[in-house]
Design goal:
The chain is mainly alpha-helical. It contains 8 helices and no strands.
Length: 158
Amino acid sequence: MLEFYVQGEFRRRQIRECPVGKHLDGFAVWLRSAGYKRRPGQLLLRGAAHLGHWIATRGIREDQITTAVLDVFARHLAHCACPQAFQGRRRYDWEGAQRLVGHLRRSGVVPSLPTPAPPSVPPPDVTQRIGALTAVTPPQLRPGTFRPPDALIASLQS
């Protein structure tokens, strides 16, 4: 499926030889099934390859990519001067990296993000919340108890 997005044999070889190249054919299949047209898919593949080169230069394996690693990569893009062919500062580099990591999570290569544990104590009943609000609301502001001062009433009557 990589052939749909990358026509040149030289560029396909470059992509397949990049540090995450073994995953890019499957990523291209996912891009195609998700409806990505040729040019956006090319740019996302380029961003994915950029992430691959970037993590390789830092000694990070694919299965070690975390949200923190992606955050550092995003900051890197602002001033990227990578020597490899897939360097860049475009938003597609960031989106390609994110989409690749999502694909790697779905494939089981990268561990899924931990899901938060459900709360052990159920939230209080709504009537308890209203009762708590009534307890902290000054008496003059509670519904049905507001009465304007007598002086104000007298000034309005004249």
